[in-house]
Amino acid sequence: MNHQVVTYLAEGVDWIRFDVDALLGQFWNNTIEGLSQGSIYALVALGYTLVYGVLRLINFAHSEVFVFGVFAAYFTFYGLGFRPGPTVTLGIGELILFLLLALIAAMAVSGATAVVLERVAYRPLRRRNAPSLVFLITAIGASFVMQQVLFIWRGGNAEQAIRLLRPEPVFTVFNTAVTNIQIITVLAALVLLVVADTFINRTRLGRGIRAVAQDPDTATLMGVNKERVIMITFLVGGLLAGAAALFYLMKIPQGASYQGGFLLGIKAFTAAVLGGIGNLRGALLGGLLLGVVENYGQSLFGGDWRDIVAFVLLIVILMFRPTGILGESLGKARV
Amino acid sequence: MALLELSTVSVHYGRIQALSDVSLTVEQGEIVTLIGANGAGKTTTMRAISGIRPLSGGTITFDGEDISTLRADLRVVRGISQSPEGRGVFPGMTVMENLDMGAYSRKDRKNLAEDLDRVFTLFPRLAERKNQAGGTMSGGEQQMLAIGRALMARPRLLLLDEPSMGLAPQFIQQIFRIITEINEQGTTVLLVEQNAQQALSRAHRAYVLETGSISRTGTGQELLNDASIKEAYLGVA
Ligand SMILES: Nc1ncnc2c1ncn2[C@@H]1O[C@H](COP(=O)(O)OP(=O)(O)O)[C@@H](O)[C@H]1O
Ligand SMILES: [Mg+2]
User: What is its subcellular localisation (chain A) (predicted)?
Assistant: First the structure.
C-alpha cells in the first residue's frame, strides 16, 4: 500500500490538478448544478441565520432538523406505497400531489423538530441566563443526540433510494441540459425565500423578529413577546430546512441517512457566514455562490477538492469582509 | 387610588441589591419625577415597572391590579410604555418602522393615523425624516423618536428614563417642554432624570433615590427650594 502511494505521488502531482479545460468545458453545467445545489444550501442557511440573528446562537443541531425532514419525506414516499426499485411512471397530477404531500410532511416534521429542540434544549438555559458557551455545547450535544436517535431507529446504512421522478432534461441552454429536478429545486427555493423575506420585512410578526434581533430588551418594551418570537424563528428555520430536505432527497434519493446532515449543515452554515450571518438575503447569496464555486472547484482541481474549495472561499472572503458579503442585517448593530 | 403604586419593591442583580424597599405612587394625570445620582437605581426602578427585571420582593400595582409577575409584553397592553435609557432606537429600522414598533401591541390599528399625527405635531422633525434609518439620526432626534415611539402605544403611563441625557442645551429645553405638553394632553408621566433642576420644576411631585432607597419625597417646588437637595443635586453650594 505504501509503495502505491509513493509511485502515485512520484508520477507527478495527480492528487491535485489544474484543469482549466474541464472548468471551461463544464462551466454551464457546473453553474446550473451549482445553483440547484446552492438553493438547498440557501434554504438551510436561513435557519442558521435567523436563529443567530435573534439569539446570537449557532444552532448546530439545525443540520439534524434538516435530516429529520429528509426522513419525513422518505417515509411519506414509502407511506404512499412507493418502494425502492425502478422509478414508477406517474401522471403529472399525481406527481405534483405526491411531492406536495412529501413537502408538507417534511416541513411539518422539521418545523416541529426545531420548535421542540428550542423548548427542550435552549429555553431552560435561557431561563437560567446561561453563558453563550453553554448554549454552544448544548447545540453540539443536541446534534449528536438527534443523530443517535435516527441511528438507533434506522441503523447505520442509508435508506434504499426511492425515486418519484427521474432527472430528465427539460430544455437546454448554452448546450447544457437543465433537468426537471433542477428547475423544481431552484424555483421552489426562490419562492420560499421570497416568502420568508416578505414575512420578515413586511409583516408585524416579522418586525417583531427584527426588533428582538436588534435590541431584545427594547423589543420587549414595545410589547413583543420575546419567547414567542424565538419560537417562531425556530419554526420558520425548521420549515425552510424541511423544504430543503425534500429537494435534497429528490436530488440524492439514497441520501436518507442518520449522518446525512453533517456536511450539508456545515456547508449551509458556511453559506450563511459567507453572505453575512443574520442577513436573509446574504444566506441566499452565500448559498448560491457556494454551490456554484464548489462545482467549479471540483472541475478545476478534481473531485476530492470540492469541499475544500468551499472553506477556502469562506476564509478568503472573511479576510476581506469579516462580516460576510452583505454584512449583518437582521441583527444590525447591537451598539 | 393611585394609577401606579410600588410597595416595598426590591430588585437584585445576582447578589447585588439594586433596590431595597422602594415605595412610591403616581396619581392619574401627574408628572412624577425620580431623581438621584448615577447608580442610585433609577433605571432599575423603570425596568422593574416595565417587567424587564423581576422583583425579589414587594409588589407593583397598576390601576388597582397587582402586576408584579405579569409578563413584560402584557404590561404594554395594560398601558405602560417606556422610552428607555439610551433611547433604544432600532438602528436598522426607519423612523416609520420604529414608530410602528411602538404600536406593536395595539389592537385598534385603525386609530393609528391619529396617534401618528399627534407624534408628528409634537416632533415635526420626525415627519421630515420618515424614511431615515434610526441608527443614523442625531442624539436629539433619536430621543424624539424614542418618546414618539412610546406614545404610539397610546399609554396611560409614560415612563421616561433620562430623556435629556447627552443632549445639546437647546434640545434639553425642547424635550422638557414637550414632556409637559404630553402630560397636559392627559398622559401620566414618570420621569427619571439627572437634570434635577428641569425635572423638579416640571414635576408635580418628586422622589429622591439614594443607593437603592427613597430618601426624600415632596412636591417639585418643595424639593427645588430645599437646601440639602440644592447642595446635592442642583449644583448650588
Ligand atoms: N446589569 C446589571 N448587572 C449588575 N449590576 C447592575 C446592572 N445594572 C445595574 N446594576 C447596578 O445596580 C445599581 C443601580 O443601577 P441603575 O439602576 O442603572 O442606576 P441609575 O439608573 O440610577 O444610574 C448600580 O449599582 C449598578 O451598578
Ligand atoms: Mg440610569
Answer: Cell membrane
- Say if B139 is an interface residue toward chain A (CB within 8 Å): no
Sheet holding B31-35, edge to edge: B80-83, B157-161, B188-193, B31-35, B205-210, B213-219
DSSP state of A310: H
Amino acid at B119: V
Angstrom distance (rounded) from CA A290 to CA A33: 11
B164, B201 Cβ separation under 8 angstroms: no
Please name the CATH architecture into which domain B4-233 falls: 3-Layer(aba) Sandwich (3.40)
Query: Nearest ligand to the C-alpha of residue B44?
Result: 1
Q: Is residue A268 part of a domain?
A: yes
| Chain B residues within 8 A of A219 when measuring between CB atoms | 101
Interatomic CA distance for residues A210 and A230, integer angstroms: 11
How far does A210 lie from chain B, in Å, by closest CA?
9
Q: Is B171 helix (H, G, I), strand (E, B) or coil?
A: helix
Pocket of ligand 1 (CB under 6 A): B 13, 16, 18, 36, 38-44
**CA torsion angle A227 A232 A233 A238 (round to 10):** 130
Ion ligand 2: residues, CB within 5 A, are B 42-43, 85
* CA-closest candidate to residue A149, choices A120, A124, A108: A120
Distance from CA of A173 to the nearest CA of B (A): 41
The CA B53 to ligand 2 mean position distance, Å, reads 14
Chain A contact set for B104 (CB, 8 A): 204, 207-208, 211, 222-224
Which residues of chain A does B99 touch, with a Cβ-Cβ cutoff of 8 Å? none
ipTM for the complex shown: 0.94
Of the two residues A307 and B162, the one the predictor is more confident about is B162
Model pTM score = 0.90
- Which ligand approaches the C-alpha of residue B165 most closely? 2
Residue A334's pLDDT is: 32
Instruction: Determine whether the interchain pair B93/A214 forms a contact, defined as Cβ–Cβ distance below 8 Å.
Output: yes
Q: Which of A277, A270, A278 shows the shortest CA–CA distance to A313?
A: A270
Tell me the pLDDT tens digit for each residue of B116-144. 999 999 999 999 999 999 999 999 999 99
Residue A208: which of B104, B135, B149 has the nearest Cβ? B104
Three-class DSSP category at A118: helix
Q: Determine, yes or no, domain membership for A12.
A: no
Number of domains in chain A: 1
Q: What is the CATH number for A175?
A: 1.10.3470
Instruction: Tell whether A279 is within 8 A of chain B (Cβ).
Output: no
Kindly state whether residue A325 falls inside one of the protein's structural domains: no
**Per the domain annotation, does A206 fall within a domain?**
yes
Report the pLDDT value the prediction gives residue A164, as an integer from 0 to 100: 87
Ligand nearest to the CA of B48: 1
Domain around A229: 17-154+170-320
